[in-house]
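Researcher: I need the complex structure. Ligand is glutathione. Inputs:
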Amino acid sequence: MYTLYSMQRSGNCYKVRLALAQLRIPYRLVEIDILKGENGTPEFRAKNPSGRVPLLEVAAGRYLPESNAILWYIAGGTPLAPDDRFERAEALRWMFFEQNSMEPSIGAAYFWLTLVRGGRDLKMHAIEGWTESGYGALGVMEEHLETNRFFAADRYTIADIALYAYTHIAEQAGFDLSGFPSIRTWLRRVAAQPRHVTMEWSPTLLEAAG
Ligand SMILES: N[C@@H](CCC(=O)N[C@@H](CS)C(=O)NCC(=O)O)C(=O)O
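Model: Output:
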């Protein structure tokens, strides 16, 4: 069984929890609170030298970091990961975009402005840049979604999962989505997919409820 090292309030980790739930893949969840420095221990660094979550242990002692690489690994061979050469490249295109344009702006704003106490003061100098590049990324997404239901392969894929993670919490990070109607429609479309789970959900909660 997989072991996922994850922080509940991390968008990068949520991507993996969402895909695992939708694929009905059972796994063991280990919560790593980076705000308490739990990712800096020698034990965790031995598993992932970058000290970052998410991290998936795919087999004993075999570790895979990077949320989007993990999505490709767990979704491989399923409709969530396009197999056609062009559609696969389309999905990759949007997943690279997510890491280059969204995660460093909206993801960073979410982390520092909502999770870190005093983060706004600490990062005052960065907010203008995050705002400009975050709205720039949202503009590119909006334009695509005006004529497409999903990001790649004309269906729901891991490219949507990757982009959903930080877009659905962008308003918490101070981004106003009212001028992005196609993104808001897409957010509802993604949330309506079978076996969708929220960012708050964890398999532990399921066990507790069951
Ligand atoms: N590109 C990586 C980014 C992972 C990342 O930055 N994770 C954050 C939590 S969202 C983290 O672990 N930060 C701790 C650190 O950088 O020391 C991914 O997509 O998985």
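Model: Summary of the prediction. The longest strand covers residues 2-6.
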